[in-house]
Amino acid sequence: MPGVARVFLIAQAVFWSLSYVARPLVLLAVRPEPHFGDNVPDPRLAELGYDRGIALALQHVVFGLWVYAALVVAYAIWAHRRPLRRAAALDDPDFVPALVALYVLGMLGRAAGTASGSAGTAGEVDSANPMLAFLAVPASIAAIGLIIFLRPPDPRRTAVVLGALLVGELWWSSVVQSKTPILGAALALAIRFSMIGWNRRTALGVAGIGVLGVVGFGWLQSFKSTGTAARDAASVDAIYPENVQPFLSILRRFDLLEAATDALFYGPGGWLTPSEVAQHASLSLIPAPLLGLEKFQSGTAWADEVRGASVDMSTVTVSLAEGNFNEGYVLGGYPGVVVCAVFTFALLLAWSYSLYSRWFPVVVLGLAITGASTLFERGILGSMENLGKFVQTAVLAWLVYLVVEEFRRTESCVVTGEMESQRWV
């Protein structure tokens, strides 16, 4: 597979392996009893028996993975002789300065959200301060863009800048208690090397950073729990083997096995009709103030209606990641799984081509998808919701780009005018 699409395919394989392989292996090895404060064991799987329950929950997932693998192989056969392109953004002198301006704006939003206690966490339905939450998004997009496209002539300066960006995303992952920022940054580093060229040192470096991000996430999370909470967390983790305990914090974030169990107990079909899916997906692209009504939130609906069909969710308000194969199975059985697999792969191809675009808003959309979990743990509805948010961010980024472009053009004209004046004098 040529180009950056190969990086995302590897990342998808790793992500789905952690959800559908690593987590089941831990459950089968430890067979923990479900109890409060630990979301790794699922009471529904434990009641069925972990071996039988996991096998039933993963049937439609295995089918979806075979369909997805067939799409990948077919595309790879078609595209393997196509020449690699050069990213047009590398030839735009205003591209990197615009990303720097976006990063500063986003970091100000992050700082304001952290200081005011409204930064939010993963799974929250509503943000305490939607404006600050929106302003924080450009920081992740700009960080990913700088990691991919920044090309300082000095290797030491490059290493310092990349290291600072990675540390900043790791810090933000800890603040919002989400794996997405640091995984997006690590993915951006892999994309950078896929464009520049791989060697053994860069491959080992990216793999090491990925492992460091996983371990570092749990280490940073340990500082957020003190007193009784820390003791409760330690007692929960004590039932697992010592070599597994460092990874429990991040493993709990890969919860697609729970979504697969939701789909098993809900059954195929009966959630939404095809017309309802098309309506909700199209309306997700329109900003809520322009739409004039509250938009459908697939993560919240999945928690209330799909998981709520087999788990008591009456006292819990949360937005869940449903996963593409799981959503497809609930919407239309195995044909629905095929549709969602095709949609996810088409979105991956669109993302890979967007990073080579010459249009700044299109590149920003690609960077936003890079830093989100859209291609990993969302279906059609969740992906369209994220795309709607990304379009608004792309508009903001485009306005920033126009301001930076005009400022640099004016500055260049002033400098040129001064040089002409001195030459005539």
From TrEMBL:
It comes from the Bacteria. The keyword Transmembrane applies. Keywords: Membrane, Transmembrane, Transmembrane helix. The chain crosses the membrane at residues 53-78, 131-150, 203-220, 333-352, 359-381. This is Oligosaccharide repeat unit polymerase. It comes from Nocardia fluminea.
